[in-house]
Amino acid sequence: MSKYESINPYNGEVFATFENPDKQKIEESLRLSHALYKKWRHEKPETRAKQLHEVAQGLKEHEDELARMMTLEMGKLLKEAKEEVEICVQICEFYAKHGTEMLKPQKLNSALGNSYYLKQATGVIMACEPWNFPLYQVIRVFAPNFVVGNPMLLKHAHNVPSSAALIEKVIKRSGAPEGSLINLYLSYDQLADVIADDRIQGVALTGSERGGSSVAAEAGKALKKSTMELGGNDPFIVLDDADSEVLRNVLSDARTYNDGQVCTSSKRIIVVKSRYDEVLHELKNVFSNLKPGDPLDSSTTLSPMNSVGSKEKLEKLVNEAIDNGAEVFYQYPEIESKGAFFRPIILTHLGKENPVFDKEMFGPVAEVYCVEDEDEAIALANDSSYGLGSSIISSNIKHAQDLASEIETGMTVINGRWITSGDLPFGGVKKSGYGRELSKLGLMAFVNEHLVIDVTDSNK
Ligand code: NAP
Predict the structure, then answer these.
(1) Against a cut of 0.85, is the pTM above it?
(2) CA-nearest residue, atom 19 of ligand 1
(3) Among this protein's residues, is 370 annotated catalytic?
(4) Mind listing the pLDDT tens digit for each residue in 21-59?
(5) Which CATH number applies to 234-414: 3.40.309.10, 1.20.58.100, 3.40.50.300, 3.40.47.10?
């Protein structure tokens, strides 16, 4: 028995609890989604593209309700929750508009005969998603696979079950066929059984390295294709020629958006020494001006973390860093609240010998590093077992583009912090996982590239 509970991290109130599904519910869900896959195989993507447009409309219509539920369950600022819904509308519209074209057969030039490959659905996808963007993480898998014709079963994080139920309801009400997304409050053992079921043909997980390796192992055992979108320790490199205004604007939320609980948040701020003091000053300015409060209140700029457990885990990690030599440049004063507030902190002198050096700190913690020059900056950026995103702040765009290719990450933003859009691929290398979500690459994650070749002439 595993616990799915909605707990408001601002006041500790438990407002909903959910049971694991019984065998019958799981079987019925597999049956329904598989039957839909079989039906969809005979339908054109155009039909699903139209339905996906309706889903986008449904999300738009329910923006307030969806945003409010996410804020209640995991504490993000209501303004950011609304932005999340808007990004999801954009992602659905992107695939509704371009998915059909992307799924057209690909002609190949081969001396062996007239050939092409079809882009076909493969079957039901089991998606395992985290709480930090309760809607966006689901839509990143749902929207492309919907157009492809792969139905989705969802195992959402244990602390956002009400959002999961609402997402399922809104998608269903917008006219998506039954079985296209089914939310299940699975235990880990039940999840392993579902992954092993023959009707499941793909496994997508976004989450931690720990969760990723367990679920990837289950997928591997059952020989199911998987994509893993895991943690990050993203470098944010500030070069000597960084434009001060750009730098100030980017730093204004690069480490505090979603209370720093973003896989691609700028966690390691690597600064050439000529700009080090300026960066520390700007960050302190941002952190010290935050206003803690109810995340539903529009004047609040510092939200609680998603849970007391996450807050305590982060505090432990920060203390470990400090005990091993990291210095505190700034920490936000005590916050009088019952909420899961973590006091934003700026750490310096976090050396390679520090046991926390290669760990992801998932919350408002800025690690600031001073380096001699850009070579040292790149070497430090690459000295990580993660490889998700990165940023370079520089006035010389050509040079920044050259440097981007030196960084061992799946994504680099020049003169900005992390961004996302339906038309841009998202994903990492090393322990940040494998595979891509969004864009055409994400659409192809669970597609059968079915080769058809006509060799009639060579057999005459
Ligand atoms: P997590 O513990 O790995 O949870 C993610 C999902 O996997 C949840 O649904 C969770 O269920 C499930 N899960 C975890 N361990 C499992 C296991 N052993 N067997 C089966 N299912 C398991 O991740 P988190 O710590 O909540 O989320 C934060 C992490 O996600 C950070 O590391 C962050 O960087 C990463 N992330 C990555 C991306 C990306 O796109 N690369 C995006 C967002 C977040 P329960 O909740 O029931 O445990």
Answers:
(1) yes
(2) 188
(3) no
(4) 999 999 999 999 999 999 999 999 999 999 999 999 999
(5) 3.40.309.10
